[in-house]
Specification:
Length: 118
């Protein structure tokens, strides 16, 4: 398992994690908030039945602004957002999967931008 060496907030745009495998990933804050891995955000599955999350209502100011980041044991971080939301725990595995997603998304965007220039 890959572990983070350094975690740093880059202003109001992204969270940079430097991993012990040499990769540095900038995670957009809106992606982290929208993909928060908790039942209140994603719903939950119990005994093969999925329960959708309850509607959240109108967005509050500070939804995509980080108030605090704390380490959870030796396996994750928990982000508290300025609108008070603090339910998601991002394990290192979850963050690695999001990094893979970002890499694929960025390579597809580069390909499409290259093709449009031809």
């Amino acid at each position: 398992m890959t572990l983070p060496k350094r975690i740093k907030l880059n202003g109001k745009e992204s969270l940079r994690i430097e991993w012990d495998n040499g990769k540095s990933i900038d995670y957009p804050l809106n992606l982290l908030r929208d993909e928060s891995p908790d039942a209140r955000n994603k719903g939950e599955t119990i005994l093969w039945r999925h329960y959708e999350p309850e509607p959240q209502g109108p967005e509050k100011p500070g939804k995509y602004e980080v108030e605090n980041i704390e380490k959870v044991g030796s396996y994750a971080i928990k982000i508290k957002w300025k609108d008070g939301y603090d339910y998601g725990i991002f394990s290192w595995d979850t963050l690695e999967r999001l990094a893979d997603y970002l890499q694929i998304k960025n390579s597809v965007n580069k390909e499409n931008s290259f093709k449009s220039k031809e």
